[in-house]
Amino acid sequence: MESITQFLHWLEKTPVAIFVSQSPGGFSGLLMIHVGAAVIVFGMIVVVDLRLLGLASKGCSVTDLCREALPWTWTAFIISAITGVMLFTGQPVKYFANYAFQAKVALMALAGINMLVFQFMTIRSVSQWNRAPRIPVAAKLAGAISLSCWIAVVAYGRWTAFVM
Amino acid sequence: MLRSEIAVWRSGPKFIMMEYVQWLQTSALSLTIRRSGLIIPITHVLHILATGLVLSALIMINHRVWGWSQTEPSRERARRFWPWLWWSMAVLTVTGIVLTLSAPRRTLLDPSFQVKMAMMGIGMLATFGFGLALRRYGEAWDSASSKHKMVSTFAAFTLVLWMGVTLAGRGRWLVGFLQG
Predict the structure, then answer these.
(1) DSSP labels for A36-59?
(2) Residues of A in contact with B52 (CB under 8 A)
(3) What is the Cα–Cα distance from A65 to A131, expressed in whole angstroms?
(4) Does the predicted interface ipTM exceed a cut of 0.85?
(5) N- to C-terminal Cα distance for chain A?
(6) Mean pLDDT of A42-48
(7) A79 interface with B at CB cutoff 8 Å
(8) Contact, A57 vs A49, CB < 8 A?
(9) What's the CA gap between B85 and B91, in Å, rounded?
(10) Comparing A20-29, A135-144, B79-88, which segment has the lowest mean pLDDT?
């Protein structure tokens, strides 16, 4: 635990951290890009998740939707992650102790595991249900977990600022 | 300042706006929103989620218009994502009003908020016009051998406008920070 604290204290003295915490507009500018990218991540994930849940885009194949949504999702996610890490360096000790931030990171990890399970296991049988309006339970579950996680990530992300 | 100058200033639009904002700031509705612990954060979250849905719906419609996707006709694509757009815009408007009421002075008098509102107004009109045009000419655009550069550019313009609205929403903080 002490080594983590030492690392966080070292982190807040790095040039990136100083830029974020001390330059006029550094934090706000990064936050603007972070939120802008995060809303695109959320929006594009919802397109796929609602299809997996059988609630929207029922006439479209799942693979076509993924092919369209994933490049946007990943690009926006990378931008959001880079700016998120930069924002974190501005006040690492405070963020690390913030329960809302901890919940946000945990939920993102859960969403990541859910995505890996879907990509490496559930999607294998996609040829059987790609265009079918009825979706297998495993795929529905993946959609439900993903949607819940990302709504909660946005909520806890916003809540992080309220309890800082 | 001379008395006559004060009289002119007090009857000017800036003063009337400030008076109105002051009245809003002290109104019972604004106070209720501010005093409730959960209304503001929940509204913030709904506002962010709705923004994501507007952008994703526009991106999906634009994919078809740009020819990046050929899985269904433009008209069908637009029809499918139309409810997403309108419901999200409705949520954006309602939550936006609540958030403005929660801090009228900080929002209404802020130049970047005024820019955001102007962009949102143009964005809504552009989206509505684009939707009507897709309904009417979508089929013809799909069957045309040459790409409709004007249509593709307009689709991109609409998306950029909404991205600008999203960024300007956070830009208020940036301007405030820069001004100290």
Answers:
(1) HHHHHHHHHHHHHHHHHTTSS-TT
(2) 38-43, 46, 154
(3) 11
(4) yes
(5) 21
(6) 97
(7) no
(8) no
(9) 10
(10) A20-29
Closest residue in A to B48 (Cα–Cα): A39
Token pair belonging to A13: 């003295």
Q: If DSSP states are collapsed to H, E and C, what string results for chain B?
A: CCHHHHHHHHCCHHHHHHHHHHHHHCCHHHHHHHHCCCHHHHHHHHHHHHHHHHHHHHHHHHHHHHCCCCCCCHHHHHHHHHHHHHHHHHHHHHHHHHHHHHCHHHHHCCHHHHHHHHHHHHHHHHHHHHHHHHHHHHHHHHHCCCCCHHHHHHHHHHHHHHHHHHHHHHHHHHHHHHHC
Which residues, including other chains, have CB under 8 Å from residue A92's CB and lie 6 or more apart?
A: A8, A9, A11, A12, A17
- Name the residue type at position B12: G
Residues in chain B within 8 Å Cβ distance of A43: 51-57, 59
Q: Which residue in the set A46, A64, A154 is minimally distant from B56, CB to CB?
A: A46
Give B131's contacts (C-beta < 8 A, 6+ positions apart).
B78, B82, B85
Q: Cα separation of B180 and A25, whole Å?
A: 10
A57 conformational bin, left if phi > 0, alpha if psi -120 to 50, beta if neither:
left
CA-based nearest distance A59→chain B, Å: 9
Residue type, B144: A
Return d(Cα B115, Cα B31) in angstroms, integer.
26
Task: Tell me the chain A residues in contact with residue B51 when contact means C-beta distances shorter than 8 Å.
Answer: 39, 43
Mutate one of A146, A150, A158 to test the B interface: name it (highest B CB count within 10 A).
A158
DSSP run (H or E) holding A31: helix A26-52
Asked if A10 and B137 touch (Cβ cutoff 8 Å), the reply is no
- Mutate one of A28, A73, A74, A162 to test the B interface: name it (highest B CB count within 10 A): A28
The per-residue pLDDT of chain A, averaged, comes to 93
Mean pLDDT of B47-54: 96
Determine, for residues B170 and A27 on separate chains, whether the beta-carbon distance falls below 8 Å. no
User: What pTM was computed for the model?
Assistant: 0.89
